[in-house]
């Protein structure tokens, strides 16, 4: 399997992200999901084969499934690279690389809302750490006596800052209201809880628990637009339902095992990151593919 670590297109670069390369495409954007993987805000030197295909196609699946709950930014998922001619004047067209098929999409340009919209349905990760200290997560009080990985009485909205560099920091709902205004903050919260609740039930029927997830939104003429990726192994914590057990950390379909492996090497979480073993690479590819296939009921598209 080939690994795409960087897109190289004769288009103006909009953003070179940790795992995505985003280009200007006329009045739109072209998002290319690479096979890069990051942990602790550091991009690893190795890629994960098929990861970009999974991220793009799983996002496309969820954007389609949730379109009745929130307007999203997707214009077209690139399956045939020839479709890109429609977005460029003839003088700017070029020989589109085959790797764009299946791992890219054309999207609307919107104004980014600088808040990471996290929804938690289970007590895990940093939420579990906060709960042990304060019996709350991002200012949301929770009952006493909850255990690690336990399902919460109801999903909670626990936003964070969206840092351009360094780590995102927890925000309270009051912080979000102060930054965005009450109406927009409440709209974000309601949309996030609605989408998460829908996806959690859909995934549960297919043997996967979505413990928590992260959404991003933008504004287009005042309208909330769901953007970026959606309910992928990079933006969510996916657990196999048949192995779920309260009171411990869970096996997962996301990149948590990669985080665990890098920590076990003694790495200090600053660049450069350690090289992954082939076993870690192969098992991560397998987890990403299995998550896609279980959630969608389809085989990952080959291009």
Structural class: alpha+beta
Radius of gyration in whole Å, from Cα?
A: 19 Å
The topology string of helices and strands comes to EEEEEHEEEEHEEEEHHEEEHH
**Poorly predicted sequence stretches spanning 5 or more consecutive residues:** none
Discrete helix count: 6
The total strand number stands at 16
Query: Which of globular, elongated, flat, extended, rod-shaped describes the shape?
Result: globular
Q: Report how far apart the termini are.
A: 12 Å
Give the CATH H-level superfamily of the largest domain: ATP-grasp fold, B domain
What is the CATH-assigned architecture of the largest domain?
A: 2-Layer Sandwich
Strand content bin: 15-25%
The figure for the number of domains is: 2
Topology summary:
Layout: E1 13-16, E2 20-25, E3 28-33, E4 38-39, E5 42-43, H1 51-65, E6 74-77, E7 104-107, E8 111-112, E9 115-122, H2 125-134, E10 136-137, E11 140-141, E12 151-157, E13 160-161, H3 173-180, H4 182-204, E14 208-220, E15 223-227, E16 236-240, H5 256-264, H6 278-296
Antiparallel strand pairs: 1-2, 2-3, 3-7, 4-5, 6-7, 8-14, 9-12, 9-13, 9-14, 10-11, 14-15, 14-16
Task: Kindly describe this structure.
The chain is an alpha+beta fold and 303 residues long. It is 28% helix and 24% strand. It contains 6 helices and 16 strands. Helix 3 (173-180) crosses helix 4. The termini are close together.
